[in-house]
Structure formats: C-alpha cells, structure tokens
Write a structure and sequence with these properties.
This protein has 6 helices and no strands. The chain is mostly helical and about 150 residues long. The protein is globular, with a radius of gyration of 17 Å.
C-alpha cells in the first residue's frame, strides 16, 4: 500500500508476488530470511508497477501511524495544526528522490530495520543509513523553511 498507494493494485502485486515466489522456491538460497526474500520480491513488483504508472504521487498517512499528541483531547485548534503539519510533512516527503523516499518509508512507516531495508533493496547498510540521513535532513530543512518547529 505504501509503495503503490492503491489497495487494488497492492493486492494484485501481493498475489503476483506469492505466485512468483512459489514458482521460484527452488532459487531461494537462504542467504537472507524467507520474509526478506519475499518482501524484496513483492517490493520489486510494486516498484515496477509504480514506474509504469507515475500518475499517483501522494503519500497517505493514517492516524494510527502518528505518535500520540499527548494526554487528553487535542481540540479543534490542535487537530487542525496536526492536520496541517501532516500535510506539510507528506509534501516534503514527496520532494525526495525515489530512492530516499522508498528507504524512508520502509524505515519510518513499515518499521523495518536497517539490515532488512538493505536486504530488501539490495544495497549496503551504509547506503541505507546515508539515504535516511539525507532524506531526513532535506525534510527538516523544508519544514524549517515553512516555519514548522
């Protein structure tokens, strides 16, 4: 869902991924966990599908993924401020190069470890750390320029 941003396309990718994994089981070498191998396979399918259709470029943020705002009800003003910050953050993320955005979303939204991201993307752990560093710095700079503390 985070890569394709469309429930039907995501379901198609997962279904195709399971079929492809089943047909490729004899090629699973065990150098990584089965989860990582399958995740990488489905991620590649999703990236291929997204490259074919670049019309949808928005990031969806669900409330349950956001940290709690604190004790008690936010009230209308707090809820509006939170909504504006979420929109600015999503817009800032959209300005990132694809490789940085994908890496950031795998870490911050999907909750994968650096090693899992490295395995899933076929890159080194150092490259994961570098991409995350530059992605976070760029987002921080954009938000500061917009006056978001």
């Amino acid at each position: 869902m985070r890569v394709l941003r469309d429930e039907e396309r995501a379901r198609d990718a997962v279904q195709e991924g399971f079929l492809k994994a089943y047909r490729s089981l004899d090629r699973f070498e065990g150098r990584s966990s089965f989860y990582t191998w399958l995740y990488r396979l489905v991620l590649n399918l999703c990236l291929d599908m997204r490259r074919r259709d670049r019309s949808d470029r928005e990031v969806e943020w669900s409330e349950e993924r956001l940290p709690p705002a604190g004790a008690g009800d936010l009230g209308p003003a707090g809820a509006l401020e939170r909504s504006e910050i979420r929109a600015r953050l999503a817009a800032a993320i959209e300005t990132l190069p694809d490789v940085q955005r994908e890496t950031l979303l795998l870490r911050e939204v999907e909750g994968l470890s650096y090693k899992e991201i490295a395995d899933a993307l076929g890159i080194s752990k150092g490259t994961v750390m570098s991409r995350l560093h530059y992605a976070r710095k760029k987002i921080q700079r954009i938000l500061e320029e917009e006056g978001v503390a």
